[in-house]
Amino acid sequence: MEHLSKSDDTLVDQNDQPSTETPAYSTMSTDSAAAFFRTNSDTSAFSETVDDSSYSSEPSPLHWPVVKSGRQNNLVLGRVGMKQHKHDMNENDDDLECVDPELEMMKERFAKILLGEDMSGGGKGVCTAVTISNAITNLYATVFGQKLRLEPLNQENKAMWKREMNCLLSVCDYMLEVTASTQELRDGTSVQVMTSTPRPDIYVNLPALQKLNAMLLDILDSFQETEFWYVEKGSMSSNSIGSGSFGRVAQLNEEKWWLPVPCVPPDGLSEESRMNLRHKRDCANQIHKAAMAINSNILAEMDIPEGYMASLPKTGRESLGDTIYRYICTPEKFSPDYLLDRLSITSEHEALDLANRVEASMYTWRRKSCINHSKSSWNLVKDFMADTERSDKNHNLAERAESLLFCLKQRYPGLSQTSLDTWKIQYNQDVGQAILESYSRVLEGLAFNIVARIEDVHNADGA
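The structure corresponding to this sequence follows.
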């Protein structure tokens, strides 16, 4: 390889036509030497200016720009940080140190997504679908995790939510399906061509979720001037409450001690304010149902991990217990509501445990039904009469378990994810499904919290 500099008689003549493409080094830098960022731009606004006279007459075989030997030490490539740092620069180059902090933050976020949350780059990270799902969940916790009052979202958090969600959702713009279509030529000949179309699930669900997102933010923005206010529990004394200095105070559940207490005037809310609260509660409740329906559909479309099927009990009776199993197996008409009334569930923890057991028994019976039907055609005809009753029994038991699980989720809309849902989210590898599932899940949680906070104000008004 030739030396980087030659004598003056070998330099390019000034009358020669200069090259139209001038590669350049990216020389971005930050205050922290420990920050790691990835830059991959051929031409950058922060590029180092290279004098034309510093080039050799013969191009480098690797197409690297050749700089003067006196300035070779001015640029140092930090391979560990994937970033170029400047040393011993002149004061005229101070503007190169100015870097958009939001751009650098987004680079870091996307670097973590691409690395699968394994910053070592050793390939031990989780798949991209799980990483994006975690990113949306963490963003929701950052922006709305401390949203305990009915009030507008501050401008900083709102801008963060919109900016980062737009970046995370931009991945969906490049998810296409290639389908065959027929095209007619000018001579009337029909030919089959492949065309790219958006994924149907993303094309339908993503705009709906974005609309629900905007509606929820509008509901929060509408609480500009309200007749109710909030106080912390520690600032209330029994004497002040008894004297009516706080007006009417809602009696919140002691388990939710961290929530601020809503208060209304001694005479209660005005009729107009009550009507507005009811309207907003109904809207948020409908948004909650819509987001929950989308989330349920996406989870239903996800593949069941093999590990979950391997962990199922051998029989549905082993999962449900004798009491519930005997009632499900009764030949009479099955009523899931009557069964739930008899069980007397006292907490959401018990409801979640029952949901996990019912779901496990449902898939156990479905697996048995599939095994019974996975025979050859001759054996299926031969044993048709013997297997019909048994296969129908497994199918009917699975249908009853599914109806019981549906009623249980309807009674407890704020129920946490079941074990199967957790398995699906953890082992899902479809990026589109991961985005739709996590987006609908966080919107479902936000809508549920808004409804709960409005109910607290209604309780204070009726106290």
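The chain has 15 helices and seven strands.
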